[in-house]
Amino acid sequence: MKIIRTRDYDDMSRKAANIISALMTMKPECVLGLATGSTPIGTYRNLVNRYLNGDLDFSGVTTVNLDEYKGITRENDQSYYYFMNHNLFQHVNIDLNRTFLPDGTEPDALKACDDYNKVIEAAGGVDLQILGLGHNGHIGFNEPCGEFPDTTHLVRLTPETIDANKRFFASAEDVPRQALSMGIGTIMRARGIVLIITGKEKAQITKQALTGPVTPSVPASILQYHKNVTVLLDSEAASLL
Ligand code: F6R
């Protein structure tokens, strides 16, 4: 695990964009695993700027997102599809037919999971997976539990996650209770991983995830076993390391 301390959020975001840009330059047809949430917004902004400057070309890139809420349509401004469009896809020359998220509107969740696993498999797996860290140690929507789920699955969100995500909704009641998430196995099979962490409220869970025991009760701790993971974190998130 390479742990890189950055000055602040902007520095972290630029460095994350540097790593993604390097891959896109070396492998224009790469498969990027993408995350939503507040942490990667600056990274995506940097990627958009580089595209606008003529330095990046998304035309060959395929993307697979970590997760999507269950029961929310793509048009809903709280969907992760909407988030990705708004923060990245609509600003760059990506082929929208090669941007994938789990289908939260499919009533048969097992089918939606199975379909998503096939999409990832058909893409040849993930070259570089971007991850944020949940306050409870989740990655994707892999919540703390008794085992590490392998592939895409239906998740019941924990009260901590509903509480953390209510800032994006009118109220906590509006936060969906379920989501579809890429599994830990799929994340661990990514050929490279960049974990980005910011803010002092993540300092404690960062310490547990990066230096504590590897346990499904802190899902991100499994990353300690990955051969090619880079952690970019600002000084506040790193304050307890
Ligand atoms: C989002 C995701 C989540 C977030 C995590 C951190 O696609 O997979 O695991 O990365 O909840 O969210 P923020 O960045 O909002 O603190």
Brief rundown of the structure:
With 241 residues, the protein is α/β, with parallel strands linked by helices. The chain has seven helices and ten strands. Helix 1 packs across helix 2.
Structural notes for this entry:
The chain is an alpha/beta fold and 241 residues long. It contains seven helices and ten strands. The protein has helices at residues 9-26, 41-52, 80-87, 109-122, 159-165, 184-189, 203-211; strands spanning 2-6, 31-34, 62-65, 67-69, 99-100, 128-131, 153-156, 178-181, 192-197, 229-234. The chain has a seven-stranded parallel β-sheet with strand order 1-10-9-6-2-3-5, with helices on both faces. Helix 1 packs across helix 2. It is globular. It starts with a strand and ends in a 7-residue tail after the last strand. The model has no long low-confidence stretch (mean pLDDT 96). Bound molecules: fructose -6-phosphate. Residues 35-39, 66-67, 132-134, 138-140 line the site of fructose -6-phosphate.
